[in-house]
Amino acid sequence: MSPIVQVRGLRYAYEDGTEALKGIDFELQPGETVALLGANGSGKTTFALHLNGLLRATSGTIAIDGLELRESNLKEIRRRVGLVFQDSDNQLFMPTVLEDVAFAPLAAGINSTAALAKAWLALEQVGMAHKAGKAPWHLSAGEKKRVAIAGILAEEPKILVLDEPTTFLDPPGQRGLAELLSSLPQAKILITHDVPFAARLAEVAVFFQEGRIAAKDTIPTIVRQFDW
What is the C-alpha separation between 41 and 1, in angstroms, rounded? Predict the structure, then answer.
């Protein structure tokens, strides 16, 4: 089986020359869930932002579902890689939940009938169809997270990248999110400090340390090895 994400020799330096990523090799298989663990500033989010071209590597290669990450493929890669931000308020900006979820399909040029159909389906997937007419800012943190995920699902991605998905969520919200994510067929990358949450969903973890991948193993092994 070919990896759905394949990264080789990825390096990234800031304008002042500071290296944030120092030769990352990484693979994600179709349907696999991998947790990215490590301290703040270790390179996890910087790495993730390369996967749909929000950051552009200094050197190295990235292939998404067989497509090399380059300018001519960028639009399609961004459809296939759905990035769910830590703060859902950064993704929700339309007057109603339905309009928010339909925004990306409409922006991609899909007619309004088809876009709304995709939005309804995505809301049903995340259990939020009953909130379709509500304003996003009237939702709870857990509901906002579900709507943000629905907005990504409406584009029919093959990969979900979730940055600290349990931030702002209470324990019931975290459990509900874990159940939702486990029901979705997409390959997933979880950037998190929440080891119990990661262990519910991920087969393996990758530990980032000072811009490098220091280890890839089961979550209990990573926790023991790095006293995490």
Answer: 33
- CATH at residue 138: 3.40.50.300
On the 0-12 / 13-18 / 19+ scale of CB atoms within 10 A, 135 is middle
Q: With pLDDT > 90 as the criterion, what percentage of the chain qualifies?
A: 88
Distance CA 212, CA 228 (A): 17
State the Cα–Cα distance between residues 36 and 142, nearest whole angstrom.
22
Give the distance from CA 10 to its chain's centroid. 19
Tally the domains of the chain.
Answer: 1
Residues linked to residue 160 through DSSP beta bridges, in sequence order:
82, 188
pLDDT digits (tens, 9 = 90+) for 207-216: 999 999 999 9
Domain residues for 53?
5-226
Give the C-alpha separation, 216 to 60, whole Å. 20
Q: Max Cα separation, the chain?
A: 52
Q: What does pTM read for this prediction? A: 0.93
